[in-house]
Amino acid sequence: MSDIEPYEDEEEDDGPEWAGDPKHMGFLDHLEELRWSIIKPLAAFVVAFVSAMIFIVDVKDILLAPLYANYSHLTEAELMAVFPGLTTYNITGVFMAMLLIGVIIGLMVASPFIVYYVGRFLAPALTIREKKILVPGSFAVLCLFILGCCFGYFILLPRTIAAVIWFNNLLGFQLLWTTSNYFGFLTFTILGLGLAFQMPLAIIVLVSIGVVTPAQLREYRRYIVLSIVVLAAILTPPEPVTQLALAGPLWILYEVSIVVSVFLKKRQDDRDENIERLDDD
Question: What b-and-e string marks burial along 132-143, b requiring 16 or more CB atoms within 10 Å of the CB?
Fold first, then answer.
């Protein structure tokens, strides 16, 4: 008689159990899950985009606040003489401005949904340990993104615009703000800083999976700081205050990521040591 016993499932496959175990998911199931992971954030983006178009005047005034902050000391008559408003040079300029406004609002509103559904789609392929850090990790991504956007809107943009105005006045140039240039620069700055502020999380992930170590982060600190300064010089006008306003927070975030990575590495080493001790016992 054969020693091979027929395989018996200890648990019946009830159907919904596959959602937590990718081994029970077929190719079409993965595609369906991916489809909804794309559709729902896209729906949030569309709703936010349409809402921005409905309240386009109010949204436009909010996005113009960093620009008008540099003219707050002027009366209305003086403001009209110095800065009559944004201009368009072609027929489609106003529509491009409206599109950029909608994209800014849509991406900012949809970002939490993007983070959540991407994490939810990847969750079945993660280990138990990785799933435990999925929710706080997603929350950290969202918080850092919002922090970067707020930093760009409230701090960097007004300083950058002030530097541009000062240099134009110094050289006696007439300053004409076009809708496409202003809102394009606004989009690049706000969303770019939202992504740039993800640096600490990216470093922590690299440390967690063993690509880099805290010692290496300290060793290459001077090169990273130099890269941050160069990046700030490229993204901002040639004015030291504005460059430091961008380079300073990114440097601080890098130092914070080193501190956090040291703590995580110590916990990981202690956990591995405990596992080895239990295996020896």
Answer: eeeeebbebbbe
